[in-house]
What we know:
This protein has 3 helices and 3 strands. By secondary structure, the protein is an alpha+beta fold. It has a single domain, classed as 2-Layer Sandwich (GMP Synthetase, Chain A, domain 3), CATH 3.30.300. Strands 1-2-3 form a 3-stranded mixed beta sheet. Strand 2, helix 2 and strand 3 form a beta-alpha-beta unit. The longest helix is centred in the first third of the chain and has 15 residues. It starts with a helix and ends with a helix.
Amino acid sequence: MSDQTDQEMRDKLFEALENVIDPELGIDIVNLGLVYEADLNDEGVAQVVMTLTAMGCPLAGTIVNDVKRCLSDVEEVKDADVNIVWNPPWSKDNMSRYAKIALGIT
């Protein structure tokens, strides 16, 4: 894939991930800044590196399943691997302006 095609695919994956809503906060995981990377390998497997707002999040399994479900709607994606990481740690600074406004954070 060319660099432009790689970037277009990343954009497509991030767009799909905007449909994954954090069940506790009601904001999508992209605007919350939880998704660090999303790429598609040559075998059609989407590889997502993301974090959660807190360790031990009881809804982690739900969010991972939602990520896989939303990515399955992308034509090029045959499967998805979701890697939850804790470094770098998430903070409210990761959030988009939209998410901060929606949650009343300044």
